[in-house]
Each structure stands twice: as structure tokens, then as C-alpha cells.
């Protein structure tokens, strides 16, 4: 019996539905398989960071150079502030000693003034005593009829006229003696008064001088205290800038390593005859010189030490530098170039011949600039600095000074070398 129309329709619909379902499942399975095969590749691509390009490295270098310049400026300010602090401390010590001297003089003036007052009081007492004695003597003479009524005393007094004459003569002699004594005492009193006035004037002047010295001492000590605060502030600022510099240099080094790896991979695929390889060498040389300059700049303010400096940094010197940790000129150059893997001797003689000589109008940061007593004879070279650009260099100048930034424009400049190694 033939199937009914309804059954045929149900079978037809079922067939269509099953086909669509199968096609959808096949499509879904294909998509899933495709995505499962594509996903690792997409994940791997997402995980790979693009290598830094030259602009990234240059930008990071500029940032590091800016940080190094900030550190350099701050270090220079710190060196200057330290020097000013030393000068102010010396001035303060001088002011303190001047005050001490004026105070000693004041004590002596005070003692002299007191002595003068004592002598004046003694002279005054002697005058008073003499005046009292003279008054007593006059009264006694009057009582013995030797006063103004001379005629009655001569007639009726003891011993008659002769007794009167004897008494009168004695009184006159004694009166003269008393008068002379009084004059001497008064003269002594006048001298003592003059001396007292002189001592008073000297005491007043010394008091004023002592006050001036005390004010100078106070101002000098206040200046030292203010400068110490300024030095401490600059030191804190310098440490903060050094930390920023360290971070910038670390980032630059990381970018350079990544860039170097990318360049090595590129070079492995590059024809040795490719002229682009010269540009890579040139870029490497420039980067290396900049690192050398920054390595030297980090030691601004370090004491000069004759014979001082190793490939690891400042050290105790020898001879005059035996007690000082620091660098001499060739020690600083040796240290700076060692930071980029170039070994130099601790001697300007071989540093001069450590690489090609560079025309002075083609200097790059890191190049060594040399100075000689006779600019026509390299055997007379006596000093070396590390060029940092704009006719400036970092140098360890001489005993008693510190690593600093200076001009290369000197009459004893003989030439420059770009070490190679």
C-alpha cells in the first residue's frame, strides 16, 4: 500500500531538517577546527612584542642624557655649594677667633678700668685725709695763740715774744708741708681722673669692638647653617635625580639589548657586502661614546687622587694620593671606557695611541682629548679628558680639585683619540 501524502511530507521534511542539521554541524566543526588551529598562531603573535626601533632607542637615550645632564648640573651645584660651605666655615672660624680675641681685650680693659677706679678712690681718700689734718692743725694753732691775733699772743703768750716766734715758725713749716702734700695728692687725683677717663673710653671702645665681633660671629655662623641646609637640600635632590637617571639608563640598556638582538638577527640575514653594515658600526660607536661620557659624568665632584682610579671606579692613589679615594685624569678615562668593554692602560701615553686620532671638528661624546706641554710632541702629553659635546669635557684636573666639567679650548690641546677595542 502506498504511503499517504502526510507520511511522505513528514519524511521529506525530516530529510531536509536532517540535512540542514548535518550541514550546520559540519560547518560548526570546521569553524572550531579552524579556530583551534589559528588560535595558537594568534596567541603567539600577540605574545611577541615588536622590537624597539632606532627612534625608541634614541628617545630613551635623550631621556637618559637629560637625566644625566640634570645630575651633572646638580652635582656641579653641590660641588660649588660644598666649596662655598668650606669658605664660609673658614670665615666663621676666623670670626669666632676675632670675637675670642676681642673678648680677651675686653676683659683686660674691664680690669684696667676697675684698677683706675680703685686708684682714683684712693687718691680721693688721701685728699680728704689731708684736708681733715689741715683743718685740725689750723684749729690747734689758733688755740695756741698762733692765729690771727698776733700782737696779743706775742705779749701774753707762753714764752713771751720768743715763744710766739718759735711757735709761729713751726706752724709755718708744718703748713707748708701740708700744703705741699695736698698739692701732690690733688695732682695725683687729677692724673687718676685723666687715667680713669682714658680707661673709660678704652673700655667703651672695646665693648663696641666686642659687640661688632660678636655680631660678625653670629652672622658667619648663620651663613654656615644656611649653607649647610642648602647643601643638604641639593644632596637630597641629587640622590633623587640619580635614581631617575638609573631608571632611565636601565630602560635605555634594555632597549639597546633588544635592539642589538634585532640587529644581530638582521645582520645574520644581510649580505656582508651590504653597505648598510657601515651605518650599524657607526651607530654602535656613537652609542658607545655616549655611554662613556655618561659613565664619567656620574663621578663629578669626586676628589682628584694622584694614581687613583681602577676599571671599577675611584680608588686610593699613590704618593700624594695615598690617602685619597678618587681618580687622576688617565684613571678616569680608563674607568669610563671600561664600561663599554674597551680596556685602556692607566697612562696617557698608550691612551693617545689606543685608537684613531679624530679631527677636533669631528669630536663625538666619549672621545679622549689630550693636552701637552709641547703641542707638536705627543711625548709631552700630561693630561687627558673625556669629551661630552659643545667643546666641554669631564676631567680629573689636579691635586686638591675634584672631577669637573671644563672647556677643551686651551692652548695646550694637542688632539683627540677615539679608542677602539
In short:
Helix content is 68%, strand content 7%. With 421 residues, it is of the alpha+beta class. It has a 5-stranded antiparallel β-sheet.
Structural summary, described in words:
- This is C40 family peptidase.
- Residues 259-283 are annotated as: Disordered.
- Belongs to the peptidase C40 family.
- By secondary structure, the chain is an alpha+beta fold.
- The protein folds into 2 domains: 55-235, Helix Hairpins (Orthogonal Bundle); 295-421, endopeptidase domain like (from Nostoc punctiforme) (endopeptidase fold (from Nostoc punctiforme)).
- The chain is built from 7 helices and 7 strands, in the order H-H-H-H-H-E-E-H-H-E-E-E-E-E.
- The strands form 2 sheets. It has a 5-stranded antiparallel sheet. A two-stranded antiparallel ribbon has the order 1-2.
- Helix 2 (54-143) runs antiparallel to helix 4 (160-268).
- The longest helix is centred in the middle third of the chain and has 109 residues, at 160-268.
- The two termini are 103 Å apart.
Amino acid at each position: 500500500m502506498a504511503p499517504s501524502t502526510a507520511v511522505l511530507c513528514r519524511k521529506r521534511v525530516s530529510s531536509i531538517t536532517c540535512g540542514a542539521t548535518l550541514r550546520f554541524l559540519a560547518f560548526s566543526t570546521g569553524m572550531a577546527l579552524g579556530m583551534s588551529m589559528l588560535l595558537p598562531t594568534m596567541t603567539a603573535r600577540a605574545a611577541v612584542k615588536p622590537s624597539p626601533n632606532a627612534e625608541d632607542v634614541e628617545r630613551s637615550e635623550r631621556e637618559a642624557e637629560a637625566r644625566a645632564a640634570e645630575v651633572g648640573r646638580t652635582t656641579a651645584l653641590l660641588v660649588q655649594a660644598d666649596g662655598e660651605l668650606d669658605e664660609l666655615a673658614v670665615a666663621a672660624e676666623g670670626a669666632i677667633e676675632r670675637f675670642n680675641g676681642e673678648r680677651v681685650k675686653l676683659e683686660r680693659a674691664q680690669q684696667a678700668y676697675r684698677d683706675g677706679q680703685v686708684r682714683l678712690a684712693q687718691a680721693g681718700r688721701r685728699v680728704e685725709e689731708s684736708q681733715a689734718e689741715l683743718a685740725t692743725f689750723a684749729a690747734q694753732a689758733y688755740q695756741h695763740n698762733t692765729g690771727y691775733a698776733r700782737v696779743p699772743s706775742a705779749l701774753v703768750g707762753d714764752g713771751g715774744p720768743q715763744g710766739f716766734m718759735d711757735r709761729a715758725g713751726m706752724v709755718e713749716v708744718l703748713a707748708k708741708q701740708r700744703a705741699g702734700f695736698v698739692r701732690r695728692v690733688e695732682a695725683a687725683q687729677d692724673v687718676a681722673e685723666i687715667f680713669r677717663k682714658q680707661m673709660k673710653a678704652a673700655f667703651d671702645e672695646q665693648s663696641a669692638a666686642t659687640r661688632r665681633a660678636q655680631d660678625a660671629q653670629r652672622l658667619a655662623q648663620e651663613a654656615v647653617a644656611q649653607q649647610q641646609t642648602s647643601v643638604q637640600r641639593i644632596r637630597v635632590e641629587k640622590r633623587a635625580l640619580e635614581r631617575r637617571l638609573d631608571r632611565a639608563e636601565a630602560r635605555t640598556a634594555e632597549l639597546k639589548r633588544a635592539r642589538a638582538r634585532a640587529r644581530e638577527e638582521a645582520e645574520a640575514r644581510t649580505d656582508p657586502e651590504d653597505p648598510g653594515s657601515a651605518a650599524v658600526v657607526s651607530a654602535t660607536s656613537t652609542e658607545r661614546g655616549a655611554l662613556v661620557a655618561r659613565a664619567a659624568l656620574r663621578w663629578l665632584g669626586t676628589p682628584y687622587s694622584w694614581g687613583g682610579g681602577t676599571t671599577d671606579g675611584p680608588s686610593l692613589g699613590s704618593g700624594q694620593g695615598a690617602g685619597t679615594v678618587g681618580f687622576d685624569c688617565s684613571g678616569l678615562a680608563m674607568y669610563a671606557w671600561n664600561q663599554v668593554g674597551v680596556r685602556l692602560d692607566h697612562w696617557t701615553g698608550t691612551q693617545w695611541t689606543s685608537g684613531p686620532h679624530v679631527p677636533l671638528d669631528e669630536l663625538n661624546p666619549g672621545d679622549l682629548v689630550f693636552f701637552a706641554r709641547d703641542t707638536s710632541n705627543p711625548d709631552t702629553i700630561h693630561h687627558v679628558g673625556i669629551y661630552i659635546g659643545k667643546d666641554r669635557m669631564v676631567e680629573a684636573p689636579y691635586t686638591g680639585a675634584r672631577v669637573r666639567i671644563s672647556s677643551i679650548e686651551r692652548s695646550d690641546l694637542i688632539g683627540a683619540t677615539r679608542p677602539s677595542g
